[in-house]
Amino acid sequence: MSQPALLHSRSALLPSTSRASPPSPPHLSRTRRRRRCGVVMASSTTAPAPAPAGLKEGIAGLYDESSGVWESIWGDHMHHGFYDSGEAASMADHRRAQIRMIEEALAFAAVSDDPAKKPKTIVDVGCGIGGSSRYLAKKYGAQSRGITLSPVQAERGNALAAAEGLSDKVAANAHVSLQVADALEQPFPDGQFDLVWSMESGEHMPDKRKFVSELARVAAPGGTIIIVTWCHRNLEESETSLKPDELNLLKRICDAYYLPDWCSPSDYVKIAKSLSLEDIKTADWSENVAPFWPAVIKSALTWKGLTSLLKAGWKTIRGAMVMPLMIEGYKKGLIKFTIITCRKPGAA
Ligand SMILES: C[S@@+](CC[C@H](N)C(=O)[O-])C[C@H]1O[C@@H](n2cnc3c(N)ncnc32)[C@H](O)[C@@H]1O
């Protein structure tokens, strides 16, 4: 799972002020000591804490264990669906809503369908079993590379790609290949990909700045970066942290889903700006995903859902048990389902 050290320079992406690390002022050190799971404190986008021990192994284990259950009930897309506000949806609509999420994200980022401008190389960062990788490769006739921490997901996703004739390098324009690798140390050279795609993996990243800077590093000049992720609400001017009950709610979600510190949409914007990324846009889609968790809970409470959960194991059961907390987080305005898109400077 671990990758060899990257040989290429990432510092070219950073503004000169970010290249050297000056000693932390005392107030920042205090802020670092106050960090806890569930929130990134106001100034911590520039000062990430070390990743919690065992985080990567926990994430890999969770998805190794649960991906088969998810696929058998929900199919190959392991992300929220996008619904019209207030829409009541049947099970068949949910799969459509997951595809719509992909299309809405592409439209929001203004990814072109024009044969001369459409993406030809794509990386799917935190690819699950490659639902997005295959969809995007087929849509654009592109070469898609996917990375995940879960060996089970990589193997299953490659099998699905092979079954769809997407792993034959010679025959196909569209090609998909998934591998086990860490998003924070991607096994790709600089400037490779026209489209850098992260659908609901950012929330697992212990260092959001490193995460975004890796996305930017592997993007081709002019390439589009799309991050769709769970955030906590923006802090008010007067706040330095979320409220204790909000922190407590996020902590319970973090423990079950192997999530490190969360950050806010404006933290992502700050990071993207500090990396000199262009055309930075963000939107809150929390209302558009509202039917999703109630539907997942309903499917877990069927005979098939319950028996699959029991067979899968404790991590999966624990994940299912905190699903109502996601609904609570959205209802309280604490959890924000967020899209952030931007472009790497340079010729498209
Ligand atoms: C909720 S799933 C989303 C999967 C996929 N994007 C989709 O929409 O179907 C989260 C994914 O992020 C991956 N992930 C989490 N942390 C990662 C990391 N540090 N490096 C690579 N992948 C990671 C997990 O292995 C998993 O595949």
UniProtKB/TrEMBL annotation:
**Chain segments carrying region Disordered:** 1-35
Keywords attached to this entry: Methyltransferase, S-adenosyl-L-methionine, Transferase
- Name the residue ranges with Low complexity bias: 9-21
Methyltransferase type domain: residues covered:
123-227
Q: A Gene Ontology molecular-function term?
A: S-adenosylmethionine-dependent methyltransferase activity
Q: Which domain of life is it from?
A: Eukaryota
Please name the InterPro entries in this protein's record.
Answer: Methyltransf_11 (IPR013216), PiNMT-like (IPR025774), SAM-dependent_MTases_sf (IPR029063)
CDD domains referenced in this protein's UniProt entry, alphabetically: AdoMet_MTases
Question: Which SUPFAM superfamilies does the UniProt record give?
Answer: S-adenosyl-L-methionine-dependent methyltransferases
What's an example GO BP annotation here? methylation
Q: List the residue ranges of the region (SAM motif II).
A: 191-199
Q: Which family does it belong to?
A: Belongs to the class I-like SAM-binding methyltransferase superfamily. gTMT family.
What is this protein's name? Answer: Methyltransferase type 11 domain-containing protein
- Source species: Eleusine coracana subsp. coracana
- Per the record, the gene is gb09481
